[in-house]
Amino acid sequence: MCIIFGLVMLGAGVFAASSMSSNPASRSRETEIQSTSAITEVPETEEAAPAPEIGGGVSRTEATETENKDAEPSKDKEAEGAESVTVPSAPNDAGQPEQAAKPDPKYTVTFNFWDRDPIYAKTDGGTVRGILAENGYTLDSLHVPSIGADEWIDYDATVNVLTLNYETVSLTEEIPYDTEYVYSDSVPSGQSYETTSGSVGYRNVTYTIEYINGEENYRSLDSEYVTAYPVNQVITVGTAPSTVVEDPTGGYIYGADGTAYHYSKVITVKATYYNLPGGTASGLPVGDGIIATDPSVIPTGTSVYLKNDTMDLGVRLAADTGVYGAWVDVWMNESSPYYSIFAPTGVWEMTCYILD
Questions:
Q1: Are 209 and 221 in contact (CB under 8 A)?
Q2: Beta carbons of 177 and 200 less than 8 angstroms apart
Q3: What residue ranges do the domains of the chain occupy?
């Protein structure tokens, strides 16, 4: 019985071997099982021996990897497709992907011009020149900002831009004449006359004029040429002294012109000058020959003769008030022949003859 069982098993094994050798698919599966078993049994620390080639030079390991790849193509394609999938952004109204909103610039800078409309600029910071350039305006030498062109602005600001213009002009100008005073002791004191008439001169000039926002700022003289020189006016001033003749009833003072004026009283006064326009306290207009007095010392309407060793002012009328005590204020303007003598000192001591 055992012998018969052994023969049966041997026959089955020969049949199985014959079947495997005649069926490639079965041989491949067996190779796969053996290859898998061989890989499992190789320790991690030992180098595996090369697998014997099967058929056309392909190792069991390579055959196994190829079979695995062939067996799971859909899985690899699915994984590959998953890696390459890109989720598109939601389109905007124009059909383009929506972009993240950029925050508005923080600061507002207003540029005011004289010769053009203002520029309202938004910025996070920049130079005056740079902010203008970003808004389409190139700053040139004829436009000067109130803040330096290269100053950094990172705040709300208003910048006034001045506009410069230049013009060259040629003109004919008058040259004024001066007045000269000549003193003569052959002319009665208090008298004066014009010896030489004055006349203006002329010159041709060229200026460069700078305008700021249309208004003239300054002009520089480029050239000048005198075509006619001025002639000074000459005035002769009399200095011939007056004489005083005493008598019991007062006396006489003779002016340089020989006129005798009777006086009843003689006082010493301080004399100053004024040249305000308008009228006097008596109603008369101001002018040469008018003095202001203290009516309690020299009554309004009184005529006096004023002189000292330096000046002989002649006859004057007390027609104005505003001074006090022994003081007289002589009306005198800059054209008066005695102005250049009287004005520098300011206060003179003079003899005042009270005329009848």
A1: no
A2: yes
A3: 107-164, 167-235, 242-355
pLDDT digits (tens, 9 = 90+) for 84-102: 445 555 555 555 666 667 7
Q: What is the pLDDT of residues 152-177, one digit of tens each?
A: 999 999 999 999 999 999 999 999 99
Cβ contacts of residue 37 below 8 Å, gap of 6+?
none
Phi/psi of residue 261, nearest 5 degrees: -120, 125
Per-residue model confidence (pLDDT) at position 189? 65
Nearest to 201, CA basis, from 244, 161, 233, 230: 230
| pLDDT recorded at residue 17 | 46
- Amino acid 336 reads S
Give residue 300's identity as a one-letter amino acid code. T
Query: How far is residue 207's CA from residue 42's CA, in Å, rounded to a whole number?
Result: 109
Q: Using CA atoms, how far apart are residues 280 and 287, in angstroms rounded to an integer?
A: 10
Residue 131 belongs to what H/E stretch? Answer: helix 128-134
Phi and psi for 311 in degrees, rounded to 5?
-130, 145
User: How many angstroms separate the CA atoms of 154 and 29, rounded?
Assistant: 79
Fold of 242-355: Barwin-like endoglucanases (2.40.40)
CATH no. of 167-235: 2.20.230.10
Domains 107-164 and 242-355 share a fold: no
More confident residue, 184 or 300: 300
Query: CB-based contacts of 253: which residues, under 8 Å, 6+ apart?
Result: 242, 243, 244, 245, 260, 261, 263, 305, 353
Chain-centre distance for alpha carbon 44: 85
d(CA 163, CA 99): 43
Query: By C-alpha distance, which of 290, 288, 265, 286 is closest to 276?
Result: 286
Token code pair at residue 333? 């303007």
Q: State the pLDDT confidence band at 232, using cuts at 50, 70 and 90.
A: very high
Lowest-confidence segment of 5-14, 28-37, 251-260, 339-348 by average pLDDT:
28-37
Average confidence (pLDDT) over 112-125? 94
Q: What is the pTM assigned to this prediction?
A: 0.41
CATH architecture group of domain 107-164 = Roll (3.10)
Tokens representing 78? Answer: 């699915």
